Amino acid sequence: MRWEKLTSREIGALDRSIPVILNIAAIEQHGPHLPLDTDARIGGHFLAELDARHSDQVLILPPVVVCTSEHHMDFPGTLTVQHATLLAYVTDILNAVAAHGFRNIILFNSHGGNQAIGQVILESFGARHRDCRVAMLTWWRIATDALLKVQEGGFGSVGHACEFETSLMMLIDEGTVRRDLVPGPSHVMTHDWANNDLLRGGRGALFRTMKEISGGSGVVGDPSLASAEKGHAITRIVVDALAEIVSSMK
């Protein structure tokens, strides 16, 4: 169910144990071949699939699409807000959800730059609402082992505007993918302890802008390996994992 599509009376009649999900995403550059709303479209796609399967078991909030993308600001079109702004805004939304009596709340993240502040939102809101259960899920982390089997390229082929994100956009809205501009691999490695990709974390964290990580291309990974068929496989894996987690929350 979609929160904004219901009436006030219909919201009031719902079981307050139903999990409520808020997607936090991004409007930012995605290389020469993908639109700025890629992260928002991907997050919305997964939640639409979840809703189609379990519409009476989840309540999906309107997404927050402009989030923290300061590290992409070297590229035209990127929109961003400060971490403190996102913390305050998302917390206010969750406060409203809790004020209406809902007690199972999930932040569903579809942008890498939201992970750190998302954890802060989780911990600060959770500490103040001990009667709620609040979780944060990032789509590529909830089923890593299964997604590794889908990845065709080696380490570094998935990151940003990459093999996975391009595959998903080919599935979601093929007409938005500029196929003649899909580049080959791009991933500027750094210290061994800091190297990572979408599915594999480093031993430590090193701040670099997207321009630095991508060598100026805006792409981290290998979008030339993308396909709509791979997008289908990713969708099935992620939505299966998401559905299992949502069910456990209720």
Automatic annotation (TrEMBL):
Pfam families hit by this protein: Creatininase
SUPFAM superfamilies per the UniProt record, alphabetical: Creatininase
Cofactor(s) needed by this chain: Zn(2+)
Database matches in InterPro entries: Creatininase-like_sf, Creatininase/forma_Hydrolase
GO molecular function: hydrolase activity, acting on carbon-nitrogen (but not peptide) bonds, in linear amides; metal ion binding
Keyword Hydrolase: yes
UniProt entry keywords in alphabetical sequence: Hydrolase, Metal-binding, Zinc
GO annotation terms (biological process): riboflavin biosynthetic process
Entry's family note: Belongs to the creatininase superfamily.
Record protein name field: Creatinine amidohydrolase
Organism of this sequence: Microvirga subterranea
